[in-house]
Amino acid sequence: MLLYIEDAEVLKHKLYRAKAGDNEVREDFLSSCKPFIGKVVSKICRRVLSWGQDDELSIGLIAMNEAIDKYKENYRVPFFAFARMVIKGRLIDYFRLENRYAMSNLLHSFGETGEQCCFEIIRSWEQYLITETTSERRGELEQYEKKLEQYKISLDNLIKSSPKHFDSRALLLKTANTLASNNELMHYLQKNKRLPLMQLISLTGISRKTLERGRKYIIAAAIILYHRSEFVCLNWYLRRISRIGMNLKKQDTVC
Length: 255
Fold this sequence. Notes:
Layout: H1 3-19, H2 23-32, H3 34-45, H4 55-70, H5 79-98, H6 102-109, H7 125-149, H8 155-161, H9 166-180, H10 183-192, H11 197-204, H12 208-213, H13 215-226, H14 232-254
Helix pairs in contact: 1-2, 3-4, 3-5, 4-5, 9-13
């Protein structure tokens, strides 16, 4: 089973335990989320922040705790994308109460003007989710396209070159997961803009021909997996596609 699928199951279990009142699980989970919170809050504030020194990080941690309680699977968005929305909303509310100069810059970064603040929409979660999820996915896709361009890959030729059969996709996804899990190999990829073929052949046992043929798919998937905190929605989508394929294969085996 692929690493990111196992992570999803572990996440689901931790959220369930935390909501059920297991404070130890909740505290451990919140602690493990600090790097994610730090990235989100620093990006919103447009500066480097430090735990224990900047109130914004504490607000982000409180928002993450709130997200644990409010998240529902029927929202049909990944938990961390949902949490990112809550953090944004709470920070906007915080800046409004503090009446800081940063508020105008923050609203501008969200495409808001004057008193039309997106946090007001949070009062109605369903509408807020529809609006923010669309914005989140569009923003992720734009960033993803820019990263793909560095490897001379477009979304169009990625779709055309993607394997049609589940077994082929699973093999390439496994390779992408191996690549994304190794910082040294990812550094090689990012620096040279090509796959570390010899290392991947050694680690996966997959032939050079298969790796070269699946180059675009492997790189595209590895980018999503390696930058999972940046591409939360895309990672969730990749995980769901893999699960659907696995379920279909199980059904075929039973039949």
